Amino acid sequence: MRKNSVKNTRINGEVQRVLAEIIRGGIKDPRIAPMTSVVSVEVAPDLKTCKAWISVFGDEKAQEETLAGLQSAEGYIRNQLARTVNLRNTPQITFIMDRSIAYGVDMSRRIDEVLEKDRTAERKADTEEAGTAEHDENNR
């Protein structure tokens, strides 16, 4: 099976859906944050390994604890995955923290700050320009 085949894409999607359900409802570990989502999954063509990109809403400590909790529950998650998805092999899961959502939020915040500075500078310039024009009219 090729890496980008239709079959592999379908397997990735199904594994992602099932992993999200298992993490959301099947794990009772208090270290795992309630706002944890599976962003992407990449199952190897031989079905031996799987990389799962995880996003956690929270601070750095919550992300680290969630990753540790998921790694310790990997055996349970793999068992539940084997029961739910009928694959020839149940892949070994590697959890990877995906920081793209946090990066996007940070970049959006920075863009908003720059735009606000521009608006403030424009207002200030408009106010000064209006004051100069009024001063010129009074001096005529």
Description of the molecule:
It is a single chain. With 140 residues, the chain is an alpha+beta fold. It has 2 domains: 6-98, K homology (KH) domain (GMP Synthetase, Chain A, domain 3); 99-140. Helices cover 61% and strands 16% of the residues. The chain contains 4 helices and 3 strands, in the order H-E-E-H-H-E-H. A 3-stranded mixed β-sheet has the order 1-2-3. A hairpin with a 5-residue loop joins strand 1 (36-43) and strand 2. Helix 1 packs across helix 3 (74-84). It is elongated and about 90 Å long. The mean pLDDT is 85.
| Order of adjacent strands in the largest pleated sheet | 1-2-3
- The proportion of residues forming helix, as a percent range, comes to 55-70%
Number of domains: 2
The N- and C-terminal alpha carbons lie at a distance of 85 Å
Write the layout of secondary structure elements.
Blueprint: H1 6-26, E1 36-43, E2 49-56, H2 60-72, H3 74-84, E3 92-97, H4 100-139
Helix pairs in contact: 1-3
Please describe the structure with a list of short key phrases separated by commas or semicolons.
140 residues, alpha+beta, GMP Synthetase, Chain A, domain 3, 2 domains, three-stranded mixed β-sheet, 4 helices, elongated
